[in-house]
Every structure is written in structure tokens, then in C-alpha cells.
Amino acid sequence: MDIFKFEARKHDGRRFIQYGRTPFPADFSFSSEGLARPADWRAPSLRYHAMRDEWVAISTSRNTRPFLPPKEYCPLCPQRDPAFPTEIPVSDRVYELAAFENMFPALAPGEQGPGRCEVVLYSPHHEGTLGGESLEQIEALLHVWQDRSRSLAAEGHTQVFIFENKGAEVGVTLHHPHGQIYAFNHVPPFVAREHDAARAHYVRTGECHICSLAHAEISDGSRVVIETPTVVAHVPFAARYPYEVHVTTRAHRPLFEHLEPQELTDLALVLKRLIFKYDGLFGFPMPYIMAHHQSASTEPNDPTYHWHLEFYPPYRSRDKLKYLAGVESGTGFFVNDTLPEDKAAELRAIAVPF
Amino acid sequence: MDIFKFEARKHDGRRFIQYGRTPFPADFSFSSEGLARPADWRAPSLRYHAMRDEWVAISTSRNTRPFLPPKEYCPLCPQRDPAFPTEIPVSDRVYELAAFENMFPALAPGEQGPGRCEVVLYSPHHEGTLGGESLEQIEALLHVWQDRSRSLAAEGHTQVFIFENKGAEVGVTLHHPHGQIYAFNHVPPFVAREHDAARAHYVRTGECHICSLAHAEISDGSRVVIETPTVVAHVPFAARYPYEVHVTTRAHRPLFEHLEPQELTDLALVLKRLIFKYDGLFGFPMPYIMAHHQSASTEPNDPTYHWHLEFYPPYRSRDKLKYLAGVESGTGFFVNDTLPEDKAAELRAIAVPF
Questions:
Q1: Cβ contacts of residue A272 below 8 Å, gap of 6+?
Q2: What is the pLDDT of residues A136-193, one digit of tens each?
Q3: Mean pLDDT in chain B?
Q4: In angstroms, rounded to a whole number, what is the distance separating the alpha carbons of residues B277 and B348?
Q5: Chain B window 196-225: which residues touch A at a Cβ cutoff of 8 Å?
Q6: pTM of the full structure
Q7: Count: domains in chain A
């Protein structure tokens, strides 16, 4: 699949990139100014939390971000009327996917809050979800992720964290189908912890930790949900959320940009199938957090750790949410009320028509 | 303050301790059997999450626990009718406070899931909150916490984690005023991380990390919310939740059991004032997670780390919750949309009549 892109700057200086499966015309440009940062916008900053040895973003401008606006005021829809500017000031041309710098970032370039935050639009259409997109559109999104991941890493960011929040239950403030990217200049706590465990495993065994775990899951089989020739989805042995699913490649791919064309095609199919299964569990679209983890090593081909996706749906049954309450929030120790093998069987049992 | 206790076993073997400010009669005993574990109850187990190098509790019996039952079926109220057994089978005697083993534990004695989970009842009265109790009742609770903490540590548990979930927004399943205790046989992730940072600080400076941070906050003053001669409450410099507050002693107290009588009296006052201020912010009772952290060192008087309480209220404004969405859940990196100094000033400005 070929992906074409058109790079520009918004009028307030933010980066804006449109992506499509056909080339953009030579005279392609914005038709209007679109939304811009307000005059009183304040850059975010980082504070060091000494007790926990971690960084916290303080971003007061985020408190003014739109909160579940009605559809006709969606800031992620293509702009139709200059009186209602949106983030997509392309009223007269069709686009397929886009990435742009977040108006309300937690990380921004500069000494006080290094890093970048981007929004990734999955579709120009307001109604929709990742799983509802065509396989071709999902595969195009994977190319966009590869492009953003490669570009942001090339700019020196240590960890390009791609993610999606889906559903009001996990705190979504805009329903238009989209995800986000945080490009960190440090390695955030959970990624650092996974790297520490992976290095210890590598020293002990000479194998990539994620490869070893994935191969063990495939060989055991009891928690595998979806298998393709190159990509596999499974409920982890020590799942922290009842319907937690991890997706990774059989082959060692430290960074998301390392995935090869066939792997992207298989991954698009796995994502579409997984989300279809999630939506079939309880008869409503399943909310989830989807988090990419990739190597934060300075080695170009980290032998210890490899890219994977983690899905955390917040429901523990049709009408009950799993809360991160006192124990999880206070100690980091997770309690799962369900047996991972049971949940994998439930997900496997939901037939997909594609 | 003197606290008396009456120790017994429930008919299913669970430990049950009643506490009161006056001695129990010599012939004091249960009047009925009360609630017992169902026949199909299964002990929880721990699974090792290799990728994150942490333990996860798998506790399928918890999925059957009561979910916000109506007041007349509250299992934490004193039993009135043997046809409706509760956890407090003392229909004919008054008690003030109690602690008992959780019917649906995430940790239970035994090889497969070492540790213990207890429930701590703050009051026999169903309607009420910690902040609404008298100063004497709160101080009595602090003595109960000291007793449970000392007893569980003496049994060999590495980290006695005392906490409270308040409000449906943080996942409470029973409204009767109560808290919980998890007695771990390992050091859970966040406590371990705080200890690592504390040891590094101690090696560098020769000072307890928590003492240093508390003294810096007191000296700066801009984030202090409540000061007493021995106990101080402040919004931390790098607060992760908008209305996060930490409470600790000015003097070095590695374990909660080390707090002296005047410190308990001051702590009761600080808790009552803090919860009053929280409830005054938005005109409704503020939900929160309250988490104790204490030394997990095997040294009896850990010079590096000391007891403190952390409060995490889930609201970021009157009508918006702070969610632990993709970034927080996927990387452990927190984004706070507010300035800690502003939130401390808001809390300071709420006058308390006591």
C-alpha cells in the first residue's frame, strides 16, 4: 500500500499532515485558517515527582479543552463554515487521514515541557470507530502510525507512544474517531519497567523478552484469541484487566516502523477482528484504551524488547466497570476478578464474518 | 485514648475483631453465625506478570461480591434479623469499630495467594462518612489502624497497606463507612519505587526522603493546606491529581504504629478538616481514594522512608472527572490540568468551624 502525505503548518505554527492513498494535487493547500490556539494559551511544563522518581505534566490550558461537544461543533470534522472553524480547514477537498499537533498538549517543545503531542484522525467521518473502518483504511492508518513514529523518533524523541481512548467510560472528550501520540524525551515509568525486566531476561536467556512471552502464549494456546501468519492476539497469563488483550508480531520487531507490509496487512485484520469481538461481548461498542509500547533503547535494533499493543477495556461484565481503586492506584498491584483463560475463550467464541 | 478489643473467629474461620473505647463484658460473644463464605468459594491466587515484573491477583470469587445493595441489605450493618445475616453478628450489643477478614479477598493465606485482606468498619451507623465522625471516633479509628498494622506486621507481612475508597466514582461497592487493609507478603510496585527513590536520596544526603520533602513543603508554604504542631497536609509539588493531598508527620515515623498519642490527636483533626474542605469544594461529598504508605524495610527503624497518607479525589472540576486514560494507564505518566499552588489555595480558602 502506498501512502501520500501533504505537510503544512497551521496558522498558529502547529504541524499538520494530511495522508491519503492517492497523490495530493500539486496546488493542494488549506482553504481557511481553522482553529488556532487562544491568545492566553500557556505551554505545559514538567515537574519532577521526587517521591516517585517520575515526571508529571502540568498543563493548565488543557482544562479549557472541548468536552463532548455536539456533533455539529466537532473540532475534528472537516471545516464546512468559516464561522465554525475546526482543526481540519479543508472544506473543499477530501482527505483520508491526518495528524496534527494537539491544541492542548501535555508535552510541547521547549525546555520546560519537552516532547510533542499529536492527534491522529482515523477518518473524515464523525460517526464511526476504528473497527468499523475498512481493512484498507485500517492498513492506511498503520502506515500513518509508522510514518509518525519514524518521523518523531528521527527528531530525537525517546519513546513515541501511540494510543487511543475509546468511549466516555475511559475519559474520551471527543467522539470523532481518533487516536493520539505522545512523543516523550524521557522513558515513562511503565515502559522503563518493561525494559528493565526485558534486559534482565535477555541477560539470563539471550532472547527478547516479548518474543519469549509471545511464543510461550502461542505454544500454550489457552489464552490465544486471534492468530494470523505474522500477528497474534492473546489475553496475557497475568492479565490485569478482565478483557485485556496484547497484540504482537511473531517476528522480532523492536519498533513499530520495523513491521513489514505483510505484518501490517495481518495487523489490520487482527485489529478489525478484535474490535468486532469486543463489540459482540455485551451488545454495545466496547470502550477501550489501546496502548503501543515500543523499544526506547538507543540501540537501533534492540535485541531485548519488541513492539506490542495492549488493549484495556474497562468493563468486567456487561454492567460493571473495573475501577483502578485504592489498591491499583495506591500500590500498582492489580486485582483481576476473572480467569484469563475464561475471558480468552469468551472472545474466541465470538465468530467474525471476515 | 484507651482502646479495647474483642477477638473472635467467624464460623467460616475468618478473623473478627471488635474495638471500643470501653471494656467489653467478660461474657461477650457473637449472638448468631452471620454471613459466611459460600460453599463454592475459591481462594485467590497470584500470577507473575513477567513483562512488568509484578504480581497480579486472580480472585474469581470477588466477581460475586455484593454491588451497591440497598441500605436494608447492607452486609456491613449490625445484624438485626437472622434471616438477613450480615458481617456483624452482634444484634444485641453495641460496638464502635471492627476489623474482619474480607469475604472476597485478593490475598489470602496459603502458597497460592499469600497475604491477607481485611475490612475496617468506621462506625455501626450506615449513613455517615469518615469526615462526619466525631474527633474521638476518628482518633479511635487511628488506634485501630495502629493495632491492625502492628498485628499484621508481627505476623510477617511486608507491607500493611491501609486504604479507603469513598464514592461510586472510585468504584465503591458498599456505602457503609469503611476502609480496607491489604497485608502483602511482597512490596507492591509503587511502594517499591518510592523506597528505591528514598534509598538513593538517603545515600546522597543522609536524610529520610519523606522528611526532606515534607520540610521543603512546609518551608515553601505555597502548597500547604493544613498545619498542626505535629501533622501537616499539603498538595505535592508534582501533584498527579488536581486535588491530591499528602498528609505526614513532621517527625520521622517509618511505620504508622510509631505515631505518638499527640500525633494521632493532630492527625484526627487534620483528617476531619481535610474531608470538610473537600466536601466544601463543589457542594457534594467529595469521593476519594485514601492510601497509606509506610516503610516496607526489614530494618525496624528505617532511616530512609516514612509513613504518609495520599488522597486522590477523582474530580478535576465540579462536573468533570480526571480519568486515568491512555497515557496514565499505558505509560504511568500523569497529566495534571491544574496548577498545584492554585488547588492548595482553593482548599486553604475553605474555612472549617473546628
A1: A131, A133, A135, A138, A354
A2: 999 999 999 999 999 999 999 999 999 999 998 888 888 899 999 999 999 999 999 9
A3: 93
A4: 8
A5: 196-198, 200-201, 209-210, 213
A6: 0.95
A7: 2
Nearest to A182 among B170, B191, B327 (CB): B327
CB-closest option in B197, B200, B331 to A190: B331
Domain boundary among A133, A168, A186: A186
Q: List the CATH number of the domain containing A247.
A: 3.30.428.10
**Pairwise CA distance, residues A8 & A344, whole Å:** 44
Distances (CA, A) of B81 to A218, B32, B92: 54, 10, 11
Cβ pair B188:A333 closer than 8 A: yes
B240 lies in some domain: yes
Same domain for A319 and A268: yes
DSSP code at position B24: P
Q: Which residues of A touch B172 (CB under 8 A)?
A: 325
pLDDT averaged over 10-residue windows placed end to end, chain B, 354 residues:
90 91 81 82 92 96 77 87 86 78 89 83 93 96 98 94 94 90 96 98 98 98 98 98 98 98 98 98 96 92 96 94 92 96 98 94
Q: Do B171 and A238 touch (CB under 8 A)?
A: no
| Structural contact between residues A53 and B199, judged by C-beta atoms closer than 8 angstroms | no
- Residue position matching grid coordinates 505535629: B230
Question: Is A255 among the domain residues?
Answer: yes
The radius of gyration of chain B's CA atoms, rounded to the nearest angstrom, is: 20
Chain B residues within 8 A of A106 when measuring between CB atoms: 327, 335
Any chain B CB within 8 A of the CB of A63?
yes
For residue B163, how many other CB atoms are within 10 A of its CB? 22
Cβ neighbours of A51 in B, within 8 Å: 194, 197-198, 209-210, 213, 236
Does residue A334 share a domain with residue A308? Answer: yes
Distance, CA of B57 to CA of A188 (rounded, Å): 24
- The domain in which residue B337 lies consists of 190-349
ipTM entry? 0.95
Residues A200 and A174 reside in one and the same domain: no
Residue A61: CA atoms inside 13 Å, Cβ hemisphere, count?
Answer: 16
Q: In this structure, are A152 and A179 located in the same domain?
A: yes
Give the Cα separation of B138 and A75 in Å (integer). Answer: 49
d(CA B307, CA B294): 4
Residue B142: CB partners within 8 Å, gap ≥ 6?
B259, B264, B267, B268
Kindly list the distances between the CA atom of residue A236 and the CA atoms of A299, A323, B164, B324, in Å, as whole numbers in the listed order.
27, 19, 29, 21
Q: Number of residue pairs across A and B with CB atoms under 8 Å?
A: 235
CB within 8 A of A270, min separation 6: which ones?
Answer: A226, A228, A231, A232, A233, A247
Q: With beta carbons under 8 A apart, name residues in chain A contacting B324.
A: 171, 324, 329
Q: Shortest CA distance to A159 belongs to which of A181, A179, A178, A141?
A: A181
Residues A334 and A232 occupy one common structural domain: yes
Q: Which residue has the cell 440497598?
A: B70
Do strands B15-20 and B4-9 pair parallel, antiparallel, or not at all (unpaired)?
Answer: antiparallel
Q: Could you tell me if residue B208 is inside a domain?
A: yes
Are B142 and B284 found together in one domain? no
Q: Cα(A25)–Cα(A86) distance, rounded to whole angstroms? A: 22
Instruction: Say whether residue B170 is in contact with chain A using an 8 A CB cutoff.
Output: yes
Question: DSSP letter at A207?
Answer: S
Q: State the catalytic residues of B.
A: 178
**A residues 283-322 closer than 8 Å to B (CB):** 289-291, 293, 310, 312, 316-317, 320-321
Give CA–CA dist B60/B38, Å, rounded: 13
